[in-house]
UniProtKB/TrEMBL annotation:
It holds the Pfam family DUF4097. The lineage of its organism: Bacteria, Pseudomonadati, Pseudomonadota, Gammaproteobacteria, Alteromonadales. PANTHER family: PROTEIN FAM185A (PTHR34094:SF1), PTHR34094. Gene3D superfamilies: 2.160.20.120. Keywords: Signal. This is DUF4097 domain-containing protein. The keyword ATP-binding does not apply. Residues 151-257 form the DUF4097 domain. Residues 1-23 form the signal peptide. The keyword NADP does not apply. It comes from Alteromonas halophila.
Length: 260
């Protein structure tokens, strides 16, 4: 038998012996009034949190993989708080790379709610929320919008995009760019840092802030008139008389501060 024929035979045998790709969907409902906290800790998967005007939490989790026992879920519900923990039961390895688990968390919470979200392997998204957002991901981007509360964001492997945040912002990424839009006057200080990309911030023309923008690997530009020190790679000064401090720092790209 030729080498080509042997390869074809081995491939066919592997396909016949490989379990059919597994997919399951978990749907749960929990009573919860506004003011509670949702905590998600998962070793893999994307997290999307949306809101509604009902006193309940709707959970929809979709899991795809080779074995239904490869991913376990734990729900802890106490009062208005819900904790969801997703863990891989094994890390199998084989000729075809072992387990290839994918998970997607879609969760709907009351509009007034705090979020504490952690994933080791996916994107985090949320919008239209009155509450604080604490988000961590090692393998994806973070996208949030229309948030009335403080946000603390970290990603090691993706970009960060925020829009219409009313509250303090602290956002860091090691592997991507940051794109942020402030539709209103800042009420709290905001800090945006990246080690591997550019930063773009858009603000109202009449915004009043203290701007501290710097880069080690590009240029800093702005459409605003700044009263302070302006250099090729840094700007430090007041815009429209000053106000909350906006700090923008990157080691690997440019910084732009534009008008909406």
């Amino acid at each position: 038998m030729t080498i080509t024929a042997l390869c074809r035979t081995a491939l066919l045998s592997a396909l016949l012996l490989t379990p059919e790709a597994f997919a399951r969907q978990i749907e749960r409902t929990f009573n919860a009034s506004p003011g509670g906290t949702l905590e998600v800790q998962t070793q893999t998967g994307s997290i999307h949190v949306q809101t509604h005007d009902r006193n309940e939490i709707l959970v929809d989790i979709e899991i795809e993989g080779d074995d239904e026992d490869d991913f376990s879920l734990e729900f802890e519900h106490e009062g208005d708080d819900l904790t969801i923990i997703g863990e891989k039961e094994s890390t199998g390895s084989g000729w075809w790379g072992g387990n290839r688990l994918r998970a997607s968390f879609t969760i709907t919470v009351p509009r007034t709610f705090d979020l504490d979200l952690h994933t080791a392997g996916g994107r985090i998204e949320t919008e239209d929320l009155k509450g604080d957002v604490y988000a961590r991901t090692s393998g994806g981007s973070i996208i949030i919008g229309n948030i009335e509360g403080d946000v603390d964001l970290r990603t090691s492997g993706g970009s960060i995009r925020t829009e219409d945040i009313v509250g303090e912002i602290d956002a860091h990424t090691s592997g991507g760019s940051i794109d942020v839009t402030f539709a209103k006057q800042l009420t709290q200080d905001a800090t945006l840092r990246t080690s591997g990309g550019s930063i773009k911030a858009r603000l109202p023309e009449d915004v009043q802030i203290d701007l501290d923008a710097s880069t080690s690997g590009g240029r800093v530009t702005t459409e605003f008139n700044v009263d302070g020190r302006i250099k090729k790679r840094s700007i430090d000064g007041e815009i429209n008389g000053g106000g909350p401090r906006l700090t923008l720092q990157t080691s690997g790209g440019s910084v732009r501060v534009d008008k909406i």
